[in-house]
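Teaching soon. Got one?

===
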Amino acid sequence: MVAYSEIKASNALINDATAPRVAVFVSGTSGIGQLTIRVLAATGASLKIYLIGRKSSFERARTFIEELHSINANANIIWTEGEVSLLSEVRRICEVIRTKERHVDLLFLTTGYTPFGSRSETSEGLEISQSLAYYSRMLFIRHLLPLLDNSEAPRVVGVLAGGMESASIDLDDIDLRKPGNFGPMKAQPQFCTMNTIGMERLATDNPHITFIHSMPGWVATGNVWRGVDDPNSYIGWFVWLILAPLISLFSFTEEESGQRHLFQCTSAAFGGRGTHWNGKAGVNSVGGRENGLFLVGYKCDCTQNARVISVFREKAQEKIWDHTLEVLKPYI
């Protein structure tokens, strides 16, 4: 556990030398992405932030950008519209960024939601929540690797459920297409584990980059409703009467959530590069302390989840990664 007071003290040290000069926030118009951008801007550092969101988010994003400019006149916020559940859109957005930038210091990924309803596919044939929570994230990383490699201290932070991996993921139905195989109890562990598998593989192939798979804990962002098809269904009533009140009762404040994720984005506690850190150094998924993949819990401490990860590293990693590359191949 990293005390909140220590996190705020670390974040107070962020300046032009240690802040991510060019950052890409995928789904930063609401939720944890927005909260993290707000506290990052409040550091006063010179920043360029690509704020990626859907067309329907534009008005909300415009108000947010105005707020950020009032907080930090040195923050250059670039609204970048795109429907990132579509891999073709991910490729297009990355091409735009690559034409404008020589390096990217931070890639922050928060896309996805818990699918309480039935399976729903994009026009590209992928289940929407899985595309958001996994495939589009992997594609963003793959396309922006050259720019991340050009950074002095590149970092990729994916917010989902780091440390909550399951050894019982379905390798015979990776995309959960079989009848009755899709639902929140099976989809969420599947997406989480696939993220850790994919990010660990990318970390191994790109040792210059620090990767973090974060479990944020409960934050009352309202996004829990996105996965509910019908608010008058049993699931809708469950979310309204039980889940949403529990989240509100036990969640972090918006400020604390933003500060904790800013710490993950900038602190030398993870990989040794970033804002100076005198505390205990994090241990990555293979037991090292320099770069690699860090599984970071909601209290900002690291876990190796060694018992589970050692199993899927041996039995599932190659199959999951080969399947991932096959899905992404038309968009690389």
The CA atoms of residues 163 and 295 lie 5 Å apart.
